[in-house]
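Reader question, answered in our methods column.
A reader sent in the components of a multi-part assembly and asked whether the whole thing could be modeled at once rather than chain by chain. We filled in our standard form and ran it. Here is what they sent:
COMPLEX SIZE: two components
ENTRIES:
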Amino acid sequence: MVEKNRALDAAKFVFAIAVAVGVLAPFAWMFVTSVGSARDLAAAPPRLAPSEWNLDRYRAIFTSASKTDVAYAFRVAMGNSLVVAGAVTLAALVAGGLAAYSFARLEFRGRRPLLLFMLFTYMAPPVVFVIPLYALFEKLGWLNSRAALVLLYSSFVIPFIVWVMRGFFASISRSYEDAAAMDGCTRLQALWHVFLPMARPGFVATGILAFLMSWDEFFMALVFTSNLKAKTISVAIAEFNGKFSIDYGMISAGGVLASLPPVIIALAFQKYIVMGMTSGGVKE
Amino acid sequence: MQRRNSEGAFALAISSPALLIVFGVVLFPLATTLAYSFMNMELISADRGSFAGLRNYAEVLGSEAFWAALGRTAWFTAASTLLETVLGLFIALLLNETFFGVRFLRTIVLIPWAIPTIVNGSLWKWIYNGEYGVMNAIMLKLGLIAEYRSWLSDPFAAMNLVVIADAWKMTPLAAIFFLAALQSVNKATYEAAVVDGAGATRRFFSLTLPYLAPTILIVLLMRTVEKFKAFDIFYMITKGGPANGTKVLMYETYLSAFTNLQYSKAATYSYLFVIIIAGLTALYVRALDKSEAGNG
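And here is the structure of the entire assembly that came back:
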């Protein structure tokens, strides 16, 4: 019995090390690539530690003023991603939160079909929307517009927020509402003073996931943006990656920077993320 | 009755921003794409815009390209979902234990999940690189290969390497789901099982696995829906190649819509997609309802 446990403990230890290495090594490798010299990158076998730390690529991304520069494109695209993801999060939290409340608490005709349609929108493959929208947006002059991206992303982030927040609201006891009504609160006041504070963790959780989903989105950004007015960082990286000779050092530096916001958020708000993911399911 | 009416009006009023945005964006293209799938929309065609009946569907369903893409999508979906679920289960079991460093491990395990899909793609493409890639170097050192190979130029290898890249990013999600379920387990049952002399393997198969079954089902369904729609990672690593070996449904649809400008074909693919996804979603909702009923 004791013998067997020892074997199990050893296996656990080995597995734990393997998981830690497996999780960290690929990302660490991207970082090493981003600071390696051109010679390091062309070494075979690859150098696992750079011969010297070369921060030029990061410096270029933060400072380059030349509009034809990849580094400049990365910086502008990162800004676009930040603006779009931030605006989507805000808009979707407000609109989605209100709708989630009515789906969770109020009786109205078409509630169930509307809710299922929301879920469908969130699950549907984006190609089914994109062909007519492209033609329409072209006519309206909405291509290469951050506002258009915000609108497009909201159309699948709002359903996500409705789906998850509905669960949060439903778990709040009815007696709070009754008490608020007794105190003479209107519905809107009860929503504001009772539900909002109680559902705050839910809003934090879904808000974080909404931001991460928008930051990660690629397909629509690829179709609807072609210049730096609205191009997101994912599109900029993918485009640069498609070039004939790829500068993996630069692409890794861009990759590290593009990963920093979501990774920091994931580490800082892990508790909320787990809560948001496991209540109602998440796709990304 | 009066109260009910005002409740309905209030509900509509506060849901209107969400409904307007979602329906405003979604309804028109949904209907138009459906119409395209029953029309002749090929740009070069003389009778462009004419009604085509079920001809587009017959054409797509009769083409080898569709079934080949469906087969590749099914392989990608099955392989990566299975890999993630099994690995995620083991990782969750590990993270559910108490040992030195487990809190650190629980924290960092989410890192791959947080990395943007496109960055994940470029990261693995670099690892797989035939000349300077670290995978070749490691495998050579371990004696698994005699010389460097250009991995992404073999269709089947390329597909499986995309599976690995995708699983690296998404396994944490499965692990987190399973860990959350494991942490709500009733510890007393396990202690009783230990007292009764049930070994670790026995406890896993007769207690843990049945307990996790609903969560496993939900994760499997949820991931299947997502995998079926995979596009970004293929765009980044293989662009559908080599020799169409990684041309999944979504990639094929994207090419017909935006490279070949075959709107009817793309629309038809999209709606075949919708039918598959709707079916899977219905199963998913049912599984969710069941597991909620089970917990409640």
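What stands out: Chain A is about 75% helix and 0% strand. Chain A touches chain B through 97 residues (CB under 8 Å).
Send us your own complexes using the same form.
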